[in-house]
Specification:
The protein is built from four helices and 28 strands. With about 375 residues, the chain is mainly beta. The longest helix has 8 residues. It is globular, with a radius of gyration of 20 Å.
Length: about 375
C-alpha cells in the first residue's frame, strides 16, 4: 500500500522527480533538461549521473553490480554504489563496535532514507531526505537541489547529535568512479591538493606505491624504484593503493575532477575546504578491469577506525576528525557537476565559482569551460 506521503509527492506539480530502479534497487530520479541523477532510497547513494545529450549514456559512477556480472563474480558491496556517504564513521569499526552492531563506513549508507520534502520554487527543485543512525545516536539529513538549464547538482547535509557530550565525528563523501568511464590511460584525475602521503599498509594486496611516504600529487614513489603519475590508471592494472592528500589550505573552495579523454566526459566536485579538508584516493585496479577509484573527500586522510583518527590527531598540521558538539548539528555543502569537454581539453588546473558560473580551466590548452551555476556555495 502506498503511503499518503507517496501520493502527495506524486501529485506535486512541475517536479521532475520520479520513482525508478537501478540494478534492481529502488531509487528516486531527479532530472532537468540537462542531467538525470538517480539516488537510492536505501543509503542515499548517487548511483547514476547522466548527461541528457550523451548518446553513449556513460555513467561515470562506480557500478559494482555490473562489474561483478562482467567478471562472473557475486556482488559484495551491498548498496555502496557510485557516490555514497560514510557517516558517522569512515573505515572499519573496532572489535567492540562490531559486537555492538556498528559496521564499517558508518550507518548512513545502510539505513533507509525517508524522503521528507520535495518542492519546486521557480527554476529550482529540491528533494530532502532524513536517516536515523541508531548506533551512534545521530540524525543525518541531506538536501539535493537542481536548477533548470544547469548540469550542476547542489548537495547540503546536516548531522545532528542526540547525545549530551562532544564527540569526534568521521565523515567522508565516498565519490567513486568506475569502469568503463575509468579506463587505463584514458581517464585522468586532477585535484587542488598540496601535501600527500601514501598509506601505511600490510602488503596483503599487490601494491605499487611505497608505504607511508610523503609526496606532491601526482608524482608518487614506487616500491620498485622511480615514480608514477597518479593522474591516470596504469596501462597494465593489477594493484590497489591508497593515498591521503590535504586540500590546498590557501583555497576556500577545493576541487577534484575526473575526465575520460576518449569520450571527453568530465565528472567533478567543488567543496568547502574547511568542511572537507582531506582527499583520500582508493585506487582499486584489478587485472580483470573491474576498476574503481575513490575520490573521497572528508574529515580524515584515510578510511581508518575512529580511535585511529583520534590517536593520529593531525597530519600535516590538519586535524584528522571533526568535532560534533553535544546536542548540536554540523553541516556541509558541495556541488557536483558533469560536462562534455572540448577537443584538446586534457587537464583541470582550476575550478572557480564566480558570477553565477562554474569556470573550469585547462591552462595548457588555454580553454575554459563555463557552466551556469546560480546557487551559492
Amino acid at each position: 500500500m502506498r503511503s499518503l506521503a507517496a501520493f502527495a509527492l506524486a501529485a506535486l506539480p512541475l517536479l521532475a522527480q520520479r520513482a525508478t530502479e537501478f540494478e534492481k534497487r529502488p531509487a528516486a530520479a531527479l532530472e532537468n533538461d540537462k542531467v538525470e541523477l538517480l539516488v537510492f532510497n536505501k543509503g542515499g547513494a548517487f548511483a547514476s549521473l547522466l548527461l541528457k545529450d550523451d548518446s553513449a549514456k556513460m555513467n561515470p559512477m562506480w557500478n559494482p553490480a555490473a562489474l561483478a556480472r562482467k567478471a562472473g563474480q557475486p556482488e559484495r558491496f551491498g548498496d555502496s554504489f557510485g557516490h555514497f556517504v560514510c557517516v558517522d564513521g569512515f573505515g572499519p569499526s573496532s572489535r567492540e563496535e562490531q559486537v555492538a552492531g556498528l559496521t564499517g563506513h558508518g550507518e548512513a549508507h545502510r539505513q533507509p532514507w525517508e524522503q521528507v520534502e520535495a518542492a519546486r520554487t521557480g527554476k529550482v527543485q529540491k528533494i530532502k531526505w532524513r536517516a536515523s543512525l541508531p548506533q551512534v545516536q545521530e540524525v543525518f539529513t541531506r538536501q539535493v537541489e537542481l536548477v533548470d538549464g544547469e548540469q550542476v547538482i547542489y548537495v547540503e547535509s546536516e548531522l545532528e547529535s542526540l547525545v549530551g557530550f562532544d564527540r569526534p565525528a568521521n565523515w567522508a563523501e565516498h565519490g567513486t568512479i568506475g569502469y568503463p568511464f575509468l579506463a587505463p590511460e584514458k581517464t585522468v584525475v586532477d585535484a587542488s591538493v598540496g601535501r600527500c602521503q601514501t598509506r601505511p599498509h600490510n602488503n596483503l594486496k599487490p601494491h605499487r606505491l611505497l608505504a607511508e611516504q610523503e609526496f606532491k600529487y601526482p608524482t608518487a614513489p614506487l616500491i620498485g624504484g622511480g615514480t608514477s603519475n597518479l593522474r591516470a590508471v596504469p596501462a597494465q592494472p593489477d594493484s590497489m593503493d591508497h593515498t591521503g592528500c590535504l586540500f590546498d589550505p590557501s583555497r576556500r573552495l577545493a576541487f577534484v575532477t575526473a575526465i575520460n579523454l576518449e569520450h571527453r566526459l568530465m565528472l567533478g566536485y567543488l567543496l568547502r575546504r574547511e568542511e572537507y579538508p582531506w582527499l583520500q584516493e582508493w585506487m582499486n585496479y584489478p587485472a580483470n578491469l573491474s576498476l574503481a577509484r575513490g575520490l573521497e573527500f572528508g574529515t580524515q586522510p584515510y578510511d581508518v577506525p575512529r580511535r585511529q583518527t583520534v590517536d593520529m590527531g593531525k597530519l600535516f598540521g590538519q586535524a584528522a576528525f571533526r568535532w560534533l558538539p553535544a546536542k548540536s548539528k554540523i553541516a556541509t555543502r558541495y556541488l557536483m557537476f558533469s560536462t562534455r569537454v572540448p577537443e584538446g581539453f586534457k587537464q583541470v588546473d582550476d575550478v572557480k565559482l564566480e558570477g553565477g558560473s562554474l569556470m573550469i580551466e585547462d591552462r595548457a590548452s588555454g580553454k575554459t569551460i563555463r557552466l551556469p551555476a546560480t546557487l551559492p556555495l
